[in-house]
Structures are given as C-alpha cells and as structure tokens.
Amino acid sequence: MKKLLYSFSLLFFIACSSSQNASKEDINTDYSAKYAATITAENLKKHLYIFASDEFEGRNTGEPGQKKAIKYLKDFYVSQGIASPLGGDDYFQEVSAEFLNKNSRRGQLKDSENVLAYIKGTEKPDEIVVISAHLDHEGIKNGKIYNGADDDGSGSMAILEIAEAFQKAAKAGKGPKRSVLFLHVTGEEKGLLGSKYYTENPVFPLANTVCDLNIDMIGRVDKAHTLDSNYVYLIGADKLSTELHQISENVNTKYTNINLDYTYNDENDPNRFYYRSDHYNFAKHNIPVIFYFNGTHDDYHKPSDTPDKIEYDLLAKRTRLVFYTAWEVANRESRLIVDKAQPKKK
What we know:
Elements: H1 2-28, H2 32-36, H3 41-51, H4 64-80, E1 92-95, H5 97-103, E2 112-119, E3 124-134, E4 139-141, E5 144-146, H6 149-171, E6 178-185, H7 193-200, E7 209-215, E8 231-235, H8 242-256, E9 259-261, H9 279-283, E10 289-293, H10 312-331
Parallel strand pairs: 3-6, 3-7, 7-10, 8-9
Antiparallel strand pairs: 1-2, 2-6, 4-5, 8-10
Helix pairs in contact: 3-6, 3-10, 4-6, 6-10, 8-10
C-alpha cells in the first residue's frame, strides 16, 4: 500500500512539475517568428495587384477610386474579424472637405476617410502602438492612371499582412499586451492631411500612444542599392527615443538581417524625408516614430509605378521587420521612454 501511495505521489509531483515548466516555457517562448512567417510575398502580391489596379483609379483623395480603396481595406478587416476602434461596423474616420481644403493648397478636395482597425491589448489595453501608411495616391492625370503600387500600395498592404499576423496570434491567445492600431490615412499626397486630422482628433489619447511605425514605399529598390537590395531606409528611430532605436536594431539583428540605411536620418540631408511622411504628425506630439522607406526611383509619382515592378520577396522581408518591431514594442514590460527632444524643423 505504501509503495502504491508513493507511486501516486511521484506521478503527481512529476505532473505538477511538468505543468509548471510548461507554464514557464509558455511565458518565455518567443512566438513572434511563428506569426511573422504568415506574412508572405504571395499574399502581398495578391492584395497589391487589386489595390493598385486601374479599377481603383489611382486612389485620389475623395474620389471614387479612393472610396473603392477604403472599402477594400474595411472588407479585409471584417473578413479577419479585426475590430474597429470606432465601434460596430464603422471603420472610417471622416475627414471633411472643409478640413482638407483649409489645410491644402492642392485644388478643391472632397470629403474623405481614414481607415482604422485595432486589436485590443491583453494587459495594457490603454497603451497604443500605431502602425500607419497612407492609402491615397495621385489619381488620374491627363487620362493616365497613377496606380501608386509602391507609393503607397506597398505600405498599405504591408499593414494588412501585419494585422492578420497579430490577429492569428491573438486568436491563439498570444497577443499583444498593448493595443495595436492599424491606421490607413488619406490625403498624404495633399500634405499629410489624414494623419494631421487623426493626431488632432485622435481616437485614442495621444498621451497613451507609445509610438508610430509608418510605412511609406517599401516594395522597390533605389539606384543607390542596385548591387545589394537587402536594405531599407530607417528615418526617425532615434529622434525621440533611444530605446526605440535599440529595439529596432536588436530585432533586425535577431530576425531579418536587413541592412538598415540611415542616410536620410541625417538632419542635414537635403531631402528632408523626416518631415515628409505621416509619422511626422505623430513626432510633432513627442511620440517616437520610425519611417520605413525604400527611397525614390524612376517610377516615383509616375503612371509607371505599377504592381508588376514590386519585388515581393523583399517587400515581405521588410514587412516582417515592421511586424517584429511592433511585436516587441507591444509586448515588452515597460513602455518606451521618450528621452530626447524633438529636432527643430529648419
């Protein structure tokens, strides 16, 4: 009888130990690679050939093609079961023609929309990690459609893949501690207007916004990198938070091994790209940012910026870098520290 009781006790001890070890393993296991692997060149290509097709008429702000674009984005989020922070079936933050025309000198614009979706955080839901890209492009000029496959169809579709990866993790009970907002802004080509509207009318308080990871053109290769396409330009990562810069570097070293080019991060660079995409409207409010960019090319702002010229394997790799960075920021114990002053705009 004593032997039998001893055997039961031993089995119970082993079972408890195994359960505790499994719990520890579950806490410490890095699941990010599993979900990053769901971001594929094939999916990006499928989406982009639709989003940058002639049917979308160049997605000009407020025009019928842009309305088709926002419907495409909403339909995707609905299909994935990713909620809107606006509640219910409303994924559109209205940006009025009055606001657009007041802030732009580029012709008379019609009412437009930002598209918002989000995944609520499990532990720190009030802290928000924003991933942004602009959904608009140049529209139709002189009878030619400016499809904007790279600018910024590439960033827009990258967000869809990142959102799907986060959602798969969330459904498996793995994610994220902080809330993640997927923000597609309008009117970038008219003067960063959609992001300006959001930061002046935020759905989540800017004080609770941890960072903005902004993606604007990541599907091509510029002339400076024709011999080595394994690169991406990073702009702004170290401007406000040394922690964000270090996280970005560490994540890249661990997972993606892309050559991070900081040429355009130089305050003296004449292109001034730090001030020229939607992240800047967050940075102005002392929110740390990273701007992911492949540089300009011969098809920049031309009708020839078409989806057949995108390097989809490279687009997928760069998209995974953004995902890994967002995953780390969203799941780390402490919020990013803002330890640097905003550079003065010269």
